[in-house]
Amino acid sequence: MQDAEASICAALRGVPGVWRELTGPAAEERFVAAAAEHRVRPLLAWRLHQSGELRLWPESVRRALVDAERGEAALEIVRRRELCRLLQRFAAVDVPVVLFKGAALAYSLYPEPWLRPREDADLLVRGEDARRAREVFAAAGYRPARMQSGAFVAHQRLYVRPDAAGRRYDCDLHWKIANPTPFADLLSPEEILREADAFTPGDGCVARIPCRLHALLLACWHRVSHHRNTDELLWLYDIHLLADGLNDAEAARVREIGRRTGTLAVCTRGLSLAAERFHTRIPATLLADEPSNDPRSSIAVYLRPDARKVDLLAADLRSLPDWRSRVRLLREHLFPPAEYMLAASDRSSRAALPALYAWRIARGVWSWFRRP
Question: In this structure, are residues 35 and 65 in contact, taking their beta carbons and an 8 Å threshold?
């Protein structure tokens, strides 16, 4: 960790006197920049309020943290109202839906939901309910964002609604838990719904969220499957809150699911990073004998810091059951829907499609084979 990140972790753990490490404007600036990059400014402000130390911190740091906290708190007012509006619409047409990832964690784990910044709300439905879910979004004034789609290349769709005040509401509709093929079916929507917990975010609406163990697995998988094994502190703090104080039976179940799905190394990595930074209390049996997966396995590739996009694509292809599926995934990557290509290039004539596809493939060669 960089010095600024180590200081942030210490402050979030409640270590007193961390402000003394910020010796001058440059150190203060690095601290604030790191806190912004890791999206923990509101959480830091609240933690320092609670400890009574906020007043002792340099004024520039204090102002940046408090401004971020107030901004998120103001945003939460409209964000909560919009979420409840959507959930009530799903309930009215009897479409079972699970609120998961950042929004679910914000309401269930954190003392206040604005302490957990997020860019959108993520809703998970069963595959057979995806069409009806899209109709719910359309009736609520949402429109699908321009993005690549296909049966294998994407298992989610972003929906956007601007309002009269110029605010924009983003909601991701998922019918599988992740886009990358090795992770997409590790837990089905049916499994998550079966063990989901109910809670009330406000305004009389009721939401279902993944149970604690499923939420922990999803948090460990998400930072690897979609974010290249990132060390972002916000996601690691999620894991810390979910894993802290697990009992032996719960730890044994996490380990069993990790072994069954081939993701034990992914789970152990996330738990180890959280424990290193936040001193998470995790049963020793869960972290014992950290597995060393075959680096060629479909999931282990996602843990490699040097993995190229083409390596991840190869992992996705290996995870599919037959050659027909693999050919279709390749075709979806190379030749997205014509509507997407025309919209992305701001063209209207289909006569331009051959040139657009050729340019996409030629331009993509460098990015797919480039080392990160």
Answer: yes
Question: Could you tell me the pTM of the whole model?
Answer: 0.93
CB 96 within 8 A of CB 129: yes
State pLDDT tens for residues 184-241.
999 999 999 999 999 888 777 889 999 999 999 999 999 999 888 889 999 999 999 9
User: 3-state SS of the chain: helix, strand, coil percent to 5?
Assistant: 60, 10, 30
Dihedral sign computed on CA atoms, order 50, 56, 57, 60: positive
Angle at 246 between CA 253 and CA 109, to 5 degrees: 110
The pair of three-digit structure tokens given for residue 194, joined into one six-digit string: 């079966």
pLDDT in tens, 120-165: 999 999 999 999 999 999 999 999 998 888 888 899 999 999 988 8
User: 177-198 b/e with 16+ CB inside 10 Å = b?
Assistant: bbbbbbbbebbbbeebbeebee
Q: What are the extents of the domains in the chain?
A: 211-303, 309-369
Ramachandran region of residue 177, left (φ > 0), alpha (ψ -120 to 50) or beta? alpha
Q: For residue 128, give the DSSP letter.
A: G
**CA separation for the pair 238, 284 (Å, rounded):** 20
**Side-chain half-sphere of 115: how many Cα atoms within 13 Å?**
17
